[in-house]
Amino acid sequence: MLEMADSYQRAEPMQIRQLAALHNIPDRYLEQLLATLRRAGLIRSQRGAKGGYLLGREPWQITLLEVIDCIEGLEAKAGEKSLTTETVERAVVRETWQEACQAANTVLQRCTLKDLCERRQIKQQLDVMYYI
């Protein structure tokens, strides 16, 4: 998603083999991930000789929470309750876990793909600075 966000302004579709090579991800696994993201509307596919995958919306409109929730289903897992009898200890741990999930979701909701691109660009610039 970050690579697609980075190439969003150029409107250049990313091909599976490009993405797989850049990040050392098996093609078949990447195909499954991209299909899931496409069904959720986070990316779209473009057919043809210069086809590939593009973001479904602008990078500043896609939050990390959306991406993670699409792939991992975080919000659904956070709200699950155990069917077994809940002890006081389990209730305390579950409530604390829910607070942690809510805090993480708040951070992920505030951060967009555009934010990540900007952070990556800053880190890349810092890596090439020379000090005397």
Tag the structure with descriptive keywords:
single chain; 132 residues; mainly alpha; two-stranded antiparallel sheet; 2 strands; globular
Topology (SSEs and partners):
Blueprint: H1 2-6, H2 16-23, H3 27-39, E1 43-46, E2 52-55, H4 64-72, H5 74-78, H6 88-110, H7 113-127
Antiparallel strand pairs: 1-2
How does this structure look, described?
With 132 residues, the protein is mainly alpha-helical. It contains seven helices and two strands. The longest helix has 23 residues, at 88-110. The relative contact order is 0.14.
Strand order of the largest sheet: 1-2
Return residue spans where pLDDT drops below 50 for at least 5 consecutive residues. Answer: none
From the N-terminal CA to the C-terminal CA, the straight-line distance is 37 Å
SSE order: HHHEEHHHH
Major sheet description: 2 strands, antiparallel
Tell how many strands the DSSP assignment holds. 2
> So how many helices?
7
Share of β-strand residues = 5-15%
Please give the radius of gyration in angstroms.
19 Å
Shape descriptor reads globular
Helix % is 55-70%
Mean pLDDT value: 89
Multimeric status of the protein: single chain
SS-derived structural category: mainly alpha
What can be said about this structure in brief?
The chain is mostly helical and 132 residues long.
